């Protein structure tokens, strides 16, 4: 019985140590958001908060393209305060300039927290070449 208790205690310590490693690690995650649906945006923002809670040292970039750029529009944006908070926690949001051209949109139509990249796909490739983990976000 004594050996069983020691074994269970050891297993608990190993699980706790692994959880600590995950939360203290610096993960590099790049998300691609192409979905323009506000329900998808709400769920995605919740996922970003969950990652920061579980692994606060993570480096996160959100690349928006297509309809996904709507997440970062200035006009009547229900997520503006949440996005500002995420930006303050180090999450980078960028918009594909090719999308802007294709949709006849202007940079001034977007929240000032957003950056811009010439090509979303190229940005994803560059980050993956540097070891970042790619995740397709949204619906």
What do you see in this structure?
- This protein is an alpha/beta fold.
- It has one domain: Hypothetical Protein Ychn, Chain: A, CATH 3.40.1260.10.
- The protein contains 5 helices and 5 strands.
- Strand 1, helix 2 and strand 2 form a beta-alpha-beta unit.
- The model has no long low-confidence stretch (mean pLDDT 89).
Q: Which properties best describe this structure?
A:
signal, five-stranded parallel sheet, DsrEFH-like, alpha/beta, Hypothetical Protein Ychn, Chain: A, single chain, Sulphur_relay_DsrE/F-like, 5 helices
* Largest sheet: number of strands, sense, barrel closure: 5 strands, parallel
The CATH topology turns out to be Hypothetical Protein Ychn, Chain: A
Helix-strand string: HEHEHEHEHE
Q: Measured on Cα atoms, how large is the radius of gyration?
A: 19 Å
Structural class: alpha/beta
Average pLDDT across residues? 89
What is the first-to-last residue Cα distance? 51 Å
Shape: globular
Give me the count of strands.
Answer: 5
- What is the CATH C level class, in words? Alpha Beta
- Give the DSSP E fraction (strand runs of 2 or more residues): 15-25%
- Uncertain residue segments: none
What is the total number of structural domains? Answer: 1
CATH superfamily: DsrEFH-like
Strand order of the largest sheet: 4-3-2-1-5
* DSSP summary: helix tally: 5
Please give the CATH architecture.
Answer: 3-Layer(aba) Sandwich
Helix content: 40-55%
């Amino acid at each position: 019985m004594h050996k069983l208790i020691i074994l269970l205690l050891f297993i608990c310590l190993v699980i706790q140590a692994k959880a600590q490693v995950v939360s203290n690690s610096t993960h590099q995650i790049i998300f691609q958001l192409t979905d323009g649906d506000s329900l998808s945006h709400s769920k995605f923002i919740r996922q970003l908060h969950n990652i920061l809670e579980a692994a606060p040292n993570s480096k996160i970039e959100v690349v928006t393209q297509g309809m996904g750029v709507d997440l970062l529009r200035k006009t009547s944006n229900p997520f503006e305060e949440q996005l500002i908070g995420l930006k303050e926690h180090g999450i980078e949001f960028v918009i594909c300039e090719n999308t802007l051209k294709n949709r006849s949109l202007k940079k001034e139509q977007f929240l000032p927290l957003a950056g811009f990249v010439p090509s979303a796909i190229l940005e994803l490739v560059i980050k993956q070449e540097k070891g970042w983990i790619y995740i397709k976000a949204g619906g």
